Amino acid sequence: MADDIILATDDVTMRFGGLAAVTDFSIAVKRGSIAGLIGPNGAGKTTCFNMITGFYKPTEGRILYEGREVTGLAPHKVCKAGIARTFQNIRLFGNETVLENVMIGRHLRQKTGWLQAVLFTPAYLREDKAMRSHCLELLDAVGLADLADDKANSLAYGAQRRLEIARALATDPGFLLLDEPAAGMNPHESQDLMGFVRTIRDDFNLTILLIEHDMKVVMGICEHIWVLDYGVTIAQGNPEAIRRDPKVILAYLGEEALDHA
Amino acid sequence: MRRGQIILFNCLAMIAAGLFLWLAKDTFDGYKIQILNLIAINIILALSLNLIYGFTGLFSLGHAGFMAIGAYVCSILIMTPDQKDMLFILEPAYDWVQNAQAPFLAAVIAGGLAAALAGIIVGYPLLRLGDDYLGIATLGFAEIVRVLANNFPRLTNGALGFKGIPDYANLWWNFGWCLVTLYVIVRLLQSNTGNVLKAIRDDEAAARAMGVNVFRYKLLSFTVGAFFAGVGGALLASLLTTIDPKMFLFTLTFNILMIVVAGGLGSLSGTVMAGIGITVLLEWLRVVENPVDLFGFELPGVPGMRMVVFSLALIIIILFRREGLMGMRELSWQSVARVFSRGKA
Amino acid sequence: MNSAMFIQHMLNSLTLGSLYALVAIGYTMVYGILRLINFAHSEMFMLGAYFVFWGITLGQLPWPVAMALAIAVTASLGVLVDQVAYRPLRDAPRISALISSIGVSFFLQNVAIVFFQAIPREVYRPQWLEDPIITHGVRILPLTLFVPFLSLLFMLVLLWIVYRTKAGLGMRAISKDIETSYLMGVPVNRIIALTFGIGTALAAASGIMWALRYPQLQPMMGTIPGFKAFIAAVFGGIGSIPGAVIGGLALGFIEIMTVAFFPDLAGYRDAFAFVLLIMVLMFKPTGLMGERLEDKV
Fold it and tell me: Which positions, given as ranges, span the membrane (chain C) (predicted)?
């Protein structure tokens, strides 16, 4: 595999019972790019995310990250390998504080454990301090540093989305999956989001794959886009090519729209 | 409030508690001292269950089983060989049971470790189960422990159990262990490991996506909880000086669950307060089960009434104040200070 | 072991198994609809038996009348328990209702200790159930035939209700998806009440027949059979009525036969069920006939 491909899927198929949710899903995401996965509701986009992150074990096919096979690994191992994600319906640890949420993401890179905490060993205290300041920096990067001690479920919607991203960043990922990051945002907010996604890509050396329904966002930031319909990849290419692809227009708007177009 | 101040207040509180115990030891009658001892042990047991259920979200009903293991192991180790010779009348004890002996501290730790080992063995297959299934399966584990205790007379003296266990578990031991339990669990929960446990409770799938090896952490919480349940059982055996399989019925787990629910799932200070309150309440309710002399009329005692009132209290709490006394909040020096400053204003 | 003894054991298994099955049906129905392990169910078993006892000794009622009345009274009690202790918790976390049911279970048990006293009581048994029939060297108590027969009758009535009536359709709808059932105009609360009524009636019937088989009443008598019946329901696949019946019969069979073939294991009798439970949960958590439930990400 070429060195500039960070994540590749190879004819990945997911069947639930007899029903094929995703068929022969093959993508190759370039290192350092922002890529998009779009398609109508129920096209199987989140299923793809769930397969990449280990929540579903694909019925067939392989998933390679940095040239290493991660197919069917448990989610926590996938995360350890460097793939982090957010959820479509925000899933924060609601009873914990904003800072604690980020620290939970950081635990993966922590070397000292709870026994050292009980014994107050110097190594633990040093690491704990360093971890806290690192997590506060992450919160600063997403603009939530002032709310560090608030409960996660007391945050406003947009802030919850950003916290979810900060939490994912805490795991030190090389590859970040964002599931509908602009959902529920007004045009102004999604404009900000586009800048934000680019910034974190640059600042944290990330490659990003996102699912999004807001076409302005997708066309605005993605360098390469894959389009799913009924689990089948019907098109791929740069935003310009996708915008003009009749199959995509057909999938989104139905037969009539094409006639009028 | 600064960290130094908090440490100072904690030390002051410990000294005050120590003074109270020192005074109580000489001035209280035996019955009141017994209640104090039970408070300490119940707090140990409830803290360990709250770690498992309140903080990690594992609905476990197996506490009586862990307690039984701790109680039997500790008792075997602190009874003298002569005592065991007299005690095992159904069948003679195994040689290693007969000869095993250890000082009290080591015996209590051994009881805890045995329970922790049982926690690992049981937790390994069972912790993959969802909440209510886990509850019923751990309840099954506790029942199996009881059945085994009944059927291994050479180890446990069968249904007769042990009598005359040395009564080493005095106020100092019990409250000392209570403090150790509180300290270890507080530190565990304040560390990032504690955050991870709470994350599993709040959203298991999200925790897995964040790289948490959910099973390993569940097993950790379950094992630490089992250890302290074993310690509690060991202390209880030495406090009561008799144990038998009937003592470790589901009722025992129920009482502890009651303390945890009443104090607040996910609140250690709530557990401590409820531990005190409910132990006192349970003892006080014994009054209704004993005959009462009222103005010269003898009212007969009503057996069972204690548990009627007690179980009704649990239903009422769960129906009308599900979060218990404290919910997930903790009583801290800051909140105490706030109450006082509000009083002045 | 000769064949006569074997037949005897088979009949005993059938009797015990059908008693477990009747109780298991109640657990499985309630779990199927509310995802609640109703701990108080085993107390319904105990109360049914006691109500017959009081009906005969205090009310001077003939046995069949006492039985019918006891089933009706217990069933109403089951509905009442749901209304008071579970219904307010429908929107609460699932474990809250479970804790409430543990509370109700202890409450009823101890109310029974207070009012009925803890001393075991002897039960009246109709004479015609006691005179043994002897054919081909096999000695059969009419009781061992009567219990499975009556159980079968109850189960047929139940199956008719669940699969042939409108209320049964509602039950099946709710167990698939309670939210949608509300929207579709299914009278959810009435049907849940009916489910508790039917489930409890079967538990009471089982308790009454249990008391014929093991003629001693005491307030804790429901606990162990209750647990075992629940395990039977899990074994058969919780939520499935045929599963509960099969699970109950299988458990009765395993218990009787193990003790018959390995008398040394008699002391462990009460542990079999729990070992079985743990094994089922480890290897096939959905039971024999259960459906698979997945956590959606």
Answer: 20-37, 44-61, 98-120, 140-163, 191-210, 230-254, 266-283
Task: List the alpha helices (DSSP H) in C58-165.
Answer: 63-81, 94-116, 142-164
Q: Based on the domain organization, do A144 and A260 belong to the same domain?
A: no
Q: What is the pLDDT of residues C90-137, one digit of tens each?
A: 988 888 999 999 999 999 999 999 888 878 888 878 878 778 888 777
Q: What is the ipTM of this complex?
A: 0.91
What CATH number labels C3-283?
A: 1.10.3470
What is the C-alpha to C-alpha distance for residues B224 and B220, in angstroms, rounded to an integer? Answer: 6
Which residue range(s) make up the domain with A224? 1-82+173-261
Q: Kindly state the tokens that stand for C95.
A: 């474990």
Among chain B residues, the shortest Cα distance to C108 is held by B308
- Interchain CB contacts (distance < 8 Å): B and C: 120
Residue A151 and residue A183 in one domain: no
> So what's the pLDDT on residue A255?
56
CB-based contact, B280 to chain A, within 8 Å: no
Output the pLDDT for position B200. 96
A197-201, B45-49, B138-142, B294-298: segment of lowest average pLDDT: B294-298
* Separation of alpha carbons B220 and A76, rounded Å: 17
The Cα–Cα gap between B108 and B226 comes to 13
Q: Which of A115, A147, A170 is the last residue of a domain?
A: A170
Structure confidence by residue, pLDDT tens digits, C146-172: 889 988 998 899 989 989 999 989 988
Scan for tokens 């008799």, then name that residue.
B242
Chain B partners of C89 at a C-beta cutoff of 8 Å? 318-319
Q: Are A165 and A223 contained in the same domain?
A: no
Domain boundary residue among A170, A192, A217? A170
- Spell out which residues of chain C touch residue A46, defining contact as CB-CB under 8 Å: 297
C49-53, long-range: CB < 8 A, 24+ apart: C49/C123, C49/C204, C49/C207, C49/C208, C49/C210, C49/C211, C49/C217, C49/C221, C50/C112, C50/C116, C50/C217, C51/C204, C52/C123, C52/C208, C52/C211, C53/C121, C53/C123, C53/C124, C53/C211, C53/C217
Q: Are A197 and A210 in contact (CB under 8 A)?
A: yes
d(CA B70, CA B234): 5
Whether A98 contacts chain B with CB within 8 A: no
The C residues from 83 to 102 touching B (CB cutoff 8 Å) are 85, 88-89, 92, 94-96, 98-100, 102
**CATH code of the domain containing A196:** 3.40.50.300
Q: Which residue has the tokens 């109703």?
A: C38
Give the number of beta-carbon pairs within 8 Å between A and C. Answer: 4
Report pLDDT for C263: 85
A129 and A193 belong to one structural domain: no
Nearest chain B CA: its distance from C36 CA (Å): 8
Q: How far apart are the first and last CA of chain A?
A: 40
Cβ pair C37:B204 closer than 8 A: no
A87 within a domain of the structure (yes/no)? no
Instruction: Please indicate, yes or no, whether residues A198 and A220 belong to a single structural domain of this protein.
Output: yes
Helix C3-34 vs helix C188-213: crossing angle, to nearest 10? 160
Domain coordinates in residue numbering, chain C: 3-283
Q: Which residue of B has its CA nearest to C92?
A: B322
